[in-house]
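pinned: reference chain
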Amino acid sequence: MNLAFVLLPEAKLPRGGAIERAFPAYAIDGQSLRYRPEKPDRSRKASEDAVVLDTGGGQAMVMLLPTPIPKGEADEAARYSISALNGKWKLPPHQAHLIVTLHAPGNVTTRLSLLTSILAAIAEASSAVGIYCGDAGATHDPRFFREIARSRTNESRLMLWTGISIAREGARYGLLSLGMSQFELPDLLLVVPPAKTDEAIPFMLDLLGMVVRDGKPLPEGDTVGRSATEKLPVRYVPSPVDPKAKVWRVEMK
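pinned: its structure tokens
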């Protein structure tokens, strides 16, 4: 099962038909979504009503909860989204949220891509102020989310499937990816000199996309680079946020 949360300024469940109509703008080849109306269940409170969506071999469910995400978890995760790195977007307050679940066949990339298309459609059909992807450790700006989803490529959607934590390493910056465990891959720690910060995010996404496509981590001592001549060695070190986990470390020159 895949899971994500759509943050709302008020407790209002989007209409299933509106989600279905919005979906084609984000769907990639082979993805489908159909709203399946259910008979009213008077035993449930209105705040617990759900929208059920068929995905062609699977099912998505959208359920409304009239409360914020507990303990400020989604608010804290907003700073790890690429959409927030330029400082122009801040997560507005939210008073309710949608729990979006997906049960569907396919590998992890196939399922994440389908969930992304569904979340973008929900954001369009609702008054969403944020999209919290817990497995990615990031809460995204809905406009940014929809723009990236509209590109319909897994390479660009990787920006939605991972968060990025930034910290100082002396005079340099350490950029740590979040959420690569979804692919059973280690996270990347990219060490960046101040003069190279503009190149860091694109290079990081290129490296992450490479290992996702290959489905396996790079070996210790292998080299990567932004050109055919650049040879930056790969080293495995304890994660700066979890000493029990290993991350692959690359230092930009």
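why pinned: The mean pLDDT is 94. Residues 163-251 form one domain.
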